[in-house]
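Side project, low priority. Logging it here so it doesn't get lost.
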Amino acid sequence: MTNETIIVDSGAEFTVTLQSAQGAGYVWQLQAHDGALRLLASGQQAQDKVAQGTSGAPGAPDAPDAPGTPGATSAQFFRWCSLQPGRHFLSFVLKRPWEAQPIETHQVTVEVRQVHAAPQPRQPQV
């Protein structure tokens, strides 16, 4: 199990990004959350390690983990909006949709801070 903490202001958007191996059938699934966080969007994108400069020469066709290659690293993202201040929790599991047991879990603690309005300037009395 992995854990992370995210601190955001009330009303702010934030993204949880989770890594997985492409082509193995495993996907991150939201297991639990409370109503104080709203899921805005989710999706998957291949991670281009060549573009990040972590494998081989840029554009090399035989570079390991090229996008779309089975076993290449991919990332799933979940974009959220924080609706109310407080401590909230998200729970994700990494599993194949047809299997009951996950191979990994990820817990996110979201600390949502109250945003205070700026004080209004005082008007001079006449």
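Brief comment: The beta strands are 2-9, 13-21, 27-33, 37-46, 73-82, 86-95, 104-113.
Revisit when time allows.
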